[in-house]
Amino acid sequence: MRHSIRRGVLAASTVAIASLALAGCSGSTQQEEPPSQAEFDPITSIRLQLQWLPQTQFAGYYIAQEKGFFEEEGFDDVEIIPSGGDIVPQDALVAGDADFAVAWVPKVLGTLEGAGVELTDIAQVFQKSGTLQVSWAGDGIESVADFEGKRIGSWGFGNEWEIFAAMAAEGLDSTTVSITTQGFDMNALLDGDVDAAQAMTYNEWAQILEVVNPDTGELYQPDDFDVVSYEETDGAMLQDAIWADTERLSDPAYADAAVRFLKAITKGWLFARDNPEESAEIVYDIASNAEAAFPVGPTHQLWQMNEVNKLIWTGADFGVVDAAAWDQTVAGALSAKNQDGLNLITTEPAESAYSNAYIQQALTELADEGVDVAGDYTPIDVTLTEGGQ
C-alpha cells in the first residue's frame, strides 16, 4: 500500500539557494561546512520508506502530509511507503527505491558494515529506547542478569541487538540464551513459547494489556508482569531515525530537499505532540483504509501516540542526534555478541554515519519563522480497552 499526495504542482524554477555539504564528522568534533550558493531545480517529489505498517509510530509523517506541511515546504508529491516486514528501509534507500527512510540505528549499522554502503542519519526522531522484555510476574526474570539460560523472544532483524548489548554490559554469556523468533504480538508469551517476550512501550506492551485475563475476567494489569526496560540499561540503543543517501547529500538539490523534508516532518511531530487525540484519529483513519495494518484499534493508536511522544520530546530540540547516545549505541554494538558468540559489528561506522547539519539547518529556519522547536511532552491519560477498540 502506498499513501501519497499530489497537490498543485510547484513551479520547478532554477533558483539560488543555500545548500549544505555533508559535514562527515560525528561526535563532539562534528563540524558543519559553510553553506555554499548553488543553482539547481528544487526537488518537489520524494518517497519516504517506513519500517512498518501505518500506525501512530509514524504520525509525524502522516500529519505532515495531511496538514499540508510538505506542500508548505515545496513538495507537491510525497509518497509514504509502509513496510510489513517485507521491505528493509535501508535497503530500499540504497536501491534508490526511496529518497529517505525511517530505520533503527543498530539495524542500519549492521547494513553499513555488512553491505559496505554509506547512509547518513540526518535526524534522530526517537531520543530514547522504547524496547521492553516482558515476562510473567514471579517467573524470575526481573533484570538482564536473569536472562542467562532463558528463552528470550525477539522479532529478529536487528531488534535483538539491545538484548546482547545489555548482557555484554553486565558481563553475561549471550550464548546461554535461546533467542526465539516471536510474532509482532504477545502470543509467544501468552502461549508459553518464550520466557520473556520483546515489546515496544507503544505497541506490544499495550497489546498484552488489552487481553482479558481468563482468571479474573478483566484485562491483564501491569502488576501481572515483570518488565525490563532497555532504556534503563547500558544496552539501550537509538531507534527511529531519518536516513539519507550519503553520496546524494553532496548534490545541493538533494541536500536542500533534506532540509525542507525535515522542516515538514518537524512541524508534523510538533502537531502530534500538541494534538495527540486528533493525530491518533488521523492515523487511525489512514490505517483503517490501508491495504494492511496491525493493530488498528483507535484506543490502541491513542496509547501509541502518547508513548511515542514520550520517546521524542525529551526537552531537547527535535531530531538532533545526541552524541553520547550515538556513542553508546555504537559501543553496545561493538561489545555485544549474539547467541552464537559472533560479533554484531567489528568496526566503528564511518564518520558520515550521522550528521546534525541538516536538522540544525531545518530547526534554524523554523525558528526564524517563529516555530518553537523544543519542549517537553505532557502525557495524557489513556485507558486501554479489550483489543484496543
From TrEMBL:
One Pfam family matching this protein: NMT1
Protein name: Thiamine pyrimidine synthase
PROSITE patterns: PROKAR_LIPOPROTEIN
Reactions that this protein is recorded to catalyse: N(6)-(pyridoxal phosphate)-L-lysyl-[4-amino-5-hydroxymethyl-2-methylpyrimidine phosphate synthase] + L-histidyl-[4-amino-5-hydroxymethyl-2-methylpyrimidine phosphate synthase] + 2 Fe(3+) + 4 H2O = L-lysyl-[4-amino-5-hydroxymethyl-2-methylpyrimidine phosphate synthase] + (2S)-2-amino-5-hydroxy-4-oxopentanoyl-[4-amino-5-hydroxymethyl-2-methylpyrimidine phosphate synthase] + 4-amino-2-methyl-5-(phosphooxymethyl)pyrimidine + 3-oxopropanoate + 2 Fe(2+) + 2 H(+)
Signal peptide: 1-23
Subunit structure: Homodimer.
Family according to the record: Belongs to the NMT1/THI5 family.
Entry function: Responsible for the formation of the pyrimidine heterocycle in the thiamine biosynthesis pathway. Catalyzes the formation of hydroxymethylpyrimidine phosphate (HMP-P) from histidine and pyridoxal phosphate (PLP). The protein uses PLP and the active site histidine to form HMP-P, generating an inactive enzyme. The enzyme can only undergo a single turnover, which suggests it is a suicide enzyme.
